[in-house]
Amino acid sequence: MCPLRINGSPNGNVKTLESAGTIFEAEDSDILLRIMERPRAINVSFEERPSNELLSNHFECLSPHGRRSGFNSPRSYTSFEAHAMVGEAWENMKRSIFYYRRQPVGTVAAMDHSVEELNYDQVFVRDFVPSALAFLMNGEEEVVKNFLLKTLHLQSWEKMIDQFKLGEGVMPASFKVIHNPVRNREILIADFGESAIGRVAPVDSGFWWIILLRAYTRHTGDSSLAEMPECQRGMRLILTLCLSEAFDTFPTLLCADGCCMIDRRMGVYGYPIEIQALFFMALRCALLLLKQDQEGKEFIERIVKRLHALSFHMRNYFWLDLKQLNDIYRYKTEEYSHTAVNKFNVMPDSLPDWVFDFMPTRGGYFIGNVSPARMDFRWFCLGNCVAILSSLATPEQASAIMDLIESRWDELVGEMPLKICYPALESHEWRIVTGCDPKNTRWSYHNGGSWPEALRGRPQIARRAIELAENRLSKDHWPEYYDGKTGRYIGKQARKFQTWSISGYLVAKMMLEDPSHLGMISLEEDKQMKPLVKRSTSWTC
């Protein structure tokens, strides 16, 4: 087996290794090459966008030709309020860009060369999304378009784990470029789960791809990419995987542990909120992107039915506020009929002590998991944020989630926003649920760690969170996550110069300065999907 040289970008970082798995060669079809060479659609200029009365006086750095200066000037987006960190963040974003055959196709997960790279030198589908949003807001569409096309091409590869073939619609978790000195060419190697921890396929990658395709289409006004037969087929393959009929009695997706952002054993197997919220959002985005041809109409009909069932299920059975908590506390068990109140036969004695103190008088959230005789009451940040963006949460529920964050600021934000999961698993529970995972010890990494990439929310909440982040992120060299009950310490295994920490900060800053950017990623409420919820969504006195 010939040695292969990693060549992720023109930055010159080289590492020799033996190929440990199957090398997949990416030969772009003539169609895809022609698409990538097409002129990009012209965006509405910055000056033509609606101005924000509260945050005005925007200005931008322009090239001599009057266009955004792009990769040649990492601080091509700025405003009178721009923090000194913004320029540094764009400089780091520029260094993170990943090239394939001289074209930018993504950003690497981290640029910390002081430790073994492992898979942090790869382009992760989920990690690239905040980078893509930052580039789109900054008028840099090329890298986003290339990424969408390249991952679409990777989807078509045969995917094998041992002797088992994965579904045709599975998108890769990540990919990287290697250089074969014998053949003197760059080739791609993708990971569909065969190299991942626990060998779990990424359920979320396909959803993120559809969501990003919609964001690109919405922001650029260019629908030609989404209307490509290849993109339409790619969406249908993803949808076929998650809309297929099986033994399910719920409209939610059944998943293994480690299938999403929390890619290690953390007890999220079953019906995790993160996957359900992404599933809902991807379905709604697909409705906007699918063509009204024969194949498209068949999927649209299936999507509409699933969305109605999914929204009802999530808004009723995953939602927790003070009233619902009190109802669960008083549940009867062993009910056998279609009129049962305790439909999942949840034992009231299984309610954790902490949730009674955590639940504020005003507020609520979507709990982590609901399945037969099991409710995971932990708070998961990403699932609740996506629920708001996708309008899976009703306006009342979205307000209640924000109320919860404000009421429990010390617990969920502390000294560094934002807790990805709360509370942390400890002692015997940690040993049983995580299998004694040394990376997910209490208040660390996925187990109660603080992740600065999750800088979102109401304007006043976002400003407070950004101010906290600006106090430390740059000084600490943009770490992946923070440890401790309040997020005081840099994560014990956190990578420095983590791209999604950098891009998350930039996206939050730009959205605050120009709230119209939010339309790229958010979806308005569909009134037809609003179920009749008999109880209140947020307890009031």
TrEMBL record:
<dbReference type="GO" id="GO:0033926">
    <property type="term" value="F:endo-alpha-N-acetylgalactosaminidase activity"/>
</dbReference>
<keyword id="KW-0378">Hydrolase</keyword>
<comment type="similarity">
    <text>Belongs to the glycosyl hydrolase 100 family.</text>
</comment>
<comment type="function">
    <text>Invertase that cleaves sucrose into glucose and fructose.</text>
</comment>
<dbReference type="InterPro" id="IPR008928">
    <property type="entry name" value="6-hairpin_glycosidase_sf"/>
</dbReference>
<dbReference type="GO" id="GO:0004575">
    <property type="term" value="F:sucrose alpha-glucosidase activity"/>
</dbReference>
<dbReference type="Pfam" id="PF12899">
    <property type="entry name" value="Glyco_hydro_100"/>
</dbReference>
<dbReference type="GO" id="GO:0005987">
    <property type="term" value="P:sucrose catabolic process"/>
</dbReference>
<dbReference type="InterPro" id="IPR024746">
    <property type="entry name" value="Glyco_hydro_100"/>
</dbReference>
<dbReference type="InterPro" id="IPR012341">
    <property type="entry name" value="6hp_glycosidase-like_sf"/>
</dbReference>
<keyword id="KW-0326">Glycosidase</keyword>
<protein>
    <recommendedName>
        <fullName>Alkaline/neutral invertase</fullName>
        <ecNumber>3.2.1.26</ecNumber>
    </recommendedName>
</protein>
<keyword id="KW-0119">Carbohydrate metabolism</keyword>
